[in-house]
Design goal:
mainly alpha; MetI-like fold; two-stranded antiparallel ribbon; 2 strands
Length: about 300
C-alpha cells in the first residue's frame, strides 16, 4: 500500500519544482502588478503603497504620460520591422537555397549579428550615426541625401527609423536562417513536380514554397512581433525615446515611469494595459494565422 501511495504522488513531486518556478516568475509578479495598479505608490514618498485610488492610475497613464505616442511608435516599429525582417530574410534564404559557392561561410557570418547583445548593437550604430565621421551619415551624404546638423538620431523624422534600421541589421539574419531551414524541409520531389507542371520563378515561390514554409513563417512573425513590441535596449542606447517622444516605445515609457520617476502605481497600471493589448493582438493573430492547423 505504501508503495502504491508513493507511486501515486510521484508525478506531483516531479512537477513541484516547475510549479514553484511558475509561481515565483509569473503568478506572484502578476498578482503584485495587478494589486498595486489601483494604489497610489511613489517610492520617493513611501516604500509601501499609500492610498487606494481605484482606476485613477489607468487614467493617469493616458493623461500624465505620453502613452498614446509610445503606443503609436511601438505598433509602427513592430509592424514595419516584422514585415521588413521577414521579407529581407526570405530573400536571403532563397539565395542560400541556390547552393552558391561560399554558402557555408555566409551562413556562419549571418549568425554573428544575432550573437551580439542589443546594447552592443546600439552603441555600434550610435557611432555610425554620428554627424561628423559616422559611417552611415557619410554614406548618405555621399549619395546626395542631406543629413540635419542634429544628425539622424536628433531629428524627429528620422530617429524612429534609425532605431529600426539597427534592429533590422541584427535580426534579419535570424529570419534568414530560420526561413532557410524551412525551405530545406521542402522535398526536391515537390519542387520537381511543380516545375514539371510549369511552375517556375515567382509562381514556384508564391504557390509552392511560401505555402509550405508558412508554419515556420507564422511562428517567426509572432515571435518577432512580440520582441519588437517590447523593444527597450536600442531605444535606451540610441535615443532615450527622443527627440521629445519621437522614438519612445511602450517599454521605454514603462521604464521611465517605474525606474526613473518611481511611480510604481502608474507603472503597474501601464503594465496591465500593455499585457492586455499584447494578449489581444496575439490572439487575433493566432486566430487567423493558425486557423488551418490541426491542434
Amino acid at each position: 500500500m505504501r508503495r502504491i501511495a508513493a507511486t501515486r504522488w510521484q508525478p506531483y513531486l516531479f512537477l513541484l519544482p516547475s510549479f514553484l518556478l511558475l509561481v515565483l516568475l509569473i503568478i506572484y509578479p502578476t498578482f503584485f502588478v495587478v494589486s498595486n495598479s489601483v494604489y497610489f505608490w511613489n517610492l520617493q514618498l513611501s516604500p509601501v503603497p499609500l492610498q487606494f485610488v481605484g482606476l485613477k492610475n489607468f487614467e493617469l497613464v493616458f493623461t500624465a504620460t505620453p502613452f498614446v505616442d509610445a503606443l503609436r511608435n511601438t505598433l509602427l516599429l513592430a509592424g514595419v520591422g516584422t514585415l521588413l525582417e521577414f521579407w529581407l530574410g526570405m530573400g536571403i534564404a532563397l539565395l542560400l537555397s541556390i547552393n552558391l559557392r561560399g554558402n557555408s561561410l555566409v551562413r556562419a557570418l549571418l549568425i554573428m549579428p544575432v550573437t551580439l547583445a542589443p546594447v552592443v548593437t546600439g552603441f555600434l550604430f550610435r557611432y555610425m550615426y554620428y554627424r561628423e565621421g559616422g559611417f552611415l551619415t557619410w554614406l548618405l551624404l555621399s549619395v546626395g541625401i542631406p543629413v540635419s546638423e542634429r544628425g539622424l538620431l536628433g531629428e524627429e523624422s528620422s530617429a524612429l527609423a534609425s532605431v529600426l534600421v539597427a534592429d533590422i541589421w541584427q535580426w534579419t539574419p535570424y529570419a534568414a536562417i530560420l526561413l532557410y531551414a524551412g525551405l530545406l524541409s521542402i522535398s526536391d520531389e515537390v519542387k520537381e513536380a511543380a516545375r514539371v507542371d510549369g511552375a517556375a520563378g515567382w509562381r514556384l515561390f508564391w504557390h509552392i514554397l511560401l505555402p509550405l514554409v508558412r508554419p515556420t513563417a507564422a511562428i517567426f512573425v509572432m515571435l518577432r512581433f512580440m520582441q519588437l513590441f517590447n523593444m527597450f535596449d536600442l531605444v535606451l542606447v540610441l535615443t532615450r525615446g527622443g527627440p521629445g517622444t519621437a522614438s519612445r516605445t511602450l517599454a521605454y515609457n514603462l521604464y521611465q515611469e517605474g525606474l526613473a520617476n518611481y511611480n510604481i502605481g502608474i507603472a503597474a497600471a501601464m503594465t496591465v494595459l500593455i499585457v492586455l493589448l499584447v494578449t489581444l493582438l496575439i490572439n487575433v493573430y493566432i486566430r487567423f494565422a493558425f486557423k488551418e492547423w490541426e491542434w
